[in-house]
Amino acid sequence: MSHDPRPADYHPLWGPIRALATGHATDPEVRFRGSSGGVLSALAIHLVASGAVDFVLATAADPDDPIGNRTAPRDDRDAILAAAGSRYAPSAPLADLERHLAAGRRFAFIGKPCDVATLRRMATRDPRIDRLIPVMFAFFCAGVPSRRGTQAVLAALDVAKEAVARFQYRGDGWPGLTRARRHDGSEASMTYAESWGGILNQHLQFRCKICPDGTGEFADIACADAWVGDSGYPDFSERDGRSLIVARTATGVALLAQAVAAGTVATEALDVREIARMQPYQATRKRNALVRSVALWAARGRGPRFARLALLRLTLSTSPLELVRNLIGTFRRARRGQPG
User: Fold this and answer.
1) How many other CB atoms sit within 10 Å of the CB of residue 321?
2) CA gap 179, 168 in Å, rounded
3) How far is CA 77 from CA 55, 64, 81, 82, 109, in A?
4) Is the per-residue pLDDT at 99 higher than 60?
């Protein structure tokens, strides 16, 4: 993973930043249905409605597996809204990429930071990608829980997997409840703090813990929860949704400006120093990414390679005690061969 070359507007923690704001979709339904302020959904709808793209490639719940995911083209407002809300489970958004490229239609892509980074790398070898995918969106990602994480949530809700007709990780409010709806129409739910904070984040894949890009550095626009809180940790009380919006490229800046001018999205400027208050986990993970990688190489003789992500600079500015703790913890996990 590498920026080649590293952009001039590169922030060591947060990657390329050409425009920074908080905001939300002006359509109340889009704002409510989204995980935070509905900005990614609003931008996707704007692109399709304006004819800039033929469809948006996005991931939603698998109709045949309510706790699984399926990526599919979405070419109107209803289809895009059906994919709104986070999906804290494994997905493979690029699995059918060749089929979509071969069709020759223009589309926008929404995916995890690692999906977008992969797409950018593939574009260096396949010119169809830049020609047919004019906009790439990412959302901040704290890591992908394994399927066992969702099964643990269902167990805590006392809902059998076979009884689940619909499973919603988040959305319909900010942050929104985790809901399991049974085939008989009954529903069980828990708060975001209980589901993500108490269960799902205990099932993160190991590769996510050593990833230096949880913020979508290679996207045109990356969005996240613009959490509020005064204790150094986000407050997950229910509120009207608010998104953190990072436009990283000229394409992203232009699109955001168009959406604001069209009245699709409302924004407020944000000081870059505020991001760490909203997303403290992302700051911690990137500061420790280099030592975690070193630990993996030491334990297994192999590991990821990163370049031009300012990891050394961040390492040198981080507490030695924090670095040693992360180095030892990662080394022990890697030697045990444990996934988390």
Assistant:
1) 8
2) 5
3) 10, 22, 6, 9, 15
4) yes
